[in-house]
Specification:
Helix content: over 70%
Oligomer: single chain
Largest sheet: none
Length: 196
């Protein structure tokens, strides 16, 4: 019988008691794994997935923010360029206006200087004409006295004769457009009426 028992105990097949104990132990381990370990794995998996998805969302948000900042920067740059162009145009217009004002002031100053010069020239001309009238009158009286052969020393007669002579010279130059005695018109010698 011992041989039969030795033959019936197969070394490859474990005893039934061990199989039952092994199945119970396996069920306990499996229960513990599903009850305690698997939820921890699931939590870690969810946390990892949330971290990855959150990182992607944060990266997308940062990318959108960077894009918005870039658009804002470009808008500010375009606005700054527009403002710089307006400032440049305004400065150019102000410069042109200043140039025009300075040109107008220079023209006014030039006109004032020319007017003052013309006034001084007219005053000097009148002074020279008055001096020449006096000298021409004296010469005319002396010449008339020599022609007549007597002295025309009377101041009243001399003054009247000189004035008539100069008036006739002015009249002749006005009608002929030439100065007396230049050969273009009028008489080159005038004899006062008192001397006739």
């Amino acid at each position: 019988m011992s041989i039969l028992a030795a033959e019936s105990a197969n070394p490859l097949i474990p005893p039934v008691g061990e199989i039952i104990i092994g199945l119970i132990a396996f069920a306990i381990v499996l229960f513990v794994m599903f009850k305690f370990v698997a939820p921890q794995f699931e939590k870690a998996f969810v946390a990892r997935r949330d971290a990855i998805e959150g990182g992607i969302a944060r990266a997308e948000a940062m990318q959108a923010e960077a894009k918005a900042s870039l658009e804002q920067y470009r808008a500010q740059l375009a606005e700054a360029r527009t403002e710089a162009a307006q400032i440049r145009d305004s400065a150019r217009a102000e410069g042109q206006q200043i140039i025009e004002e300075l040109r107008a002031q220079a023209q006014e100053e030039s006109a004032r200087i020319v007017a003052r010069g013309e006034e001084q020239l007219a005053s000097s001309r009148q002074q020279v004409v008055n001096e020449l009238r006096g000298q021409i009158g004296t010469l005319a009286v002396d010449l008339a006295g020599r022609v007549v052969g007597e002295s025309l020393a009377d101041d009243a007669r001399r003054s009247g004769t000189v004035d008539r002579f100069l008036d006739s010279l002015d009249g002749m130059s006005a009608t002929t457009g030439a100065t007396p005695g230049d050969g273009r018109g009028g008489s080159s010698a005038y004899v006062p009426q008192d001397a006739r």
